[in-house]
Fold this sequence. Notes:
The protein has about 280 residues and is α/β, with parallel strands linked by helices. It has six helices and 18 strands. The strands form two sheets. Strands 1, 2, 3, 4, 5, 6, 7, 8, 10, 11, 15 and 18 form a twelve-stranded mixed β-sheet that branches.
Amino acid sequence: xxxxxxxxxxxxxxxxxxxxxxxxxxxxxxxxxxxxxxxxxxxxxxxxxxxxxxxxxxxxxxxxxxxxxxxxxxxxxxxxxxxxxxxxxxxxxxxxxxxxxxxxxxxxxxxxxxxxxxxxxxxxxxxxxxxxxxxxxxxxxxxxxxxxxxxxxxxxxxxxxxxxxxxxxxxxxxxxxxxxxxxxxxxxxxxxxxxxxxxxxxxxxxxxxxxxxxxxxxxxxxxxxxxxxxxxxxxxxxxxxxxxxxxxxxxxxxxxxxxxxxxxxxxxxxxxxxxxxxxxxxx
Length: 283
């Protein structure tokens, strides 16, 4: 089995965790792939390296990401494009996306005996348009965030659901998230927690200028068009999964729908979502 290992080298104790993981993988006959930049640090742990994360992902059978949710999120998004499954090992704080804690490393043997399930998580297609022309496109596993600049005034948003005008907000921003992203920024902004098995699109305003504005959950086959009102004294930025910042201009619209691409997570422990959520939030 060819396994791509992607550690977050900024995490405390990551060297020890990564070498332990690679040792366990080698004991089961796996070939460990790493980026060339990681090979310098993990010489004896790495069997094959390359400088292109996309090419390594194509060659591997699965990806193992060591770090927090951000590390797992980035690896899972790339892997999803090439239909590769991801196993997250938590080296962070919450680790909602992690399949195992480092203390549970012996369970990695189930990867080789095929004692696991693949859980598919929905993603979002995001397109920015101006006068019918595409200006930017990306996919999101977690969330799509529209946020104003530091010196900007509050911004008006019109949201159209399946081409019908649905909602209007005055707010600092909007968060459109998947169920996977419902435990991230959307939760901090007062949004609902949604089990990842429930396919849906969640819309949550950020600091709305109203007492009655709340999150809305749409069916997964919905499509949303967001029309922000940008004036000379406002700045608005689009952020995908905490990365890929794009500055919006006047008369730009954002089209969001469910992607045909799914992220695939390796589930070794059969813990319920409610159990995982309770344990993480009380951590």
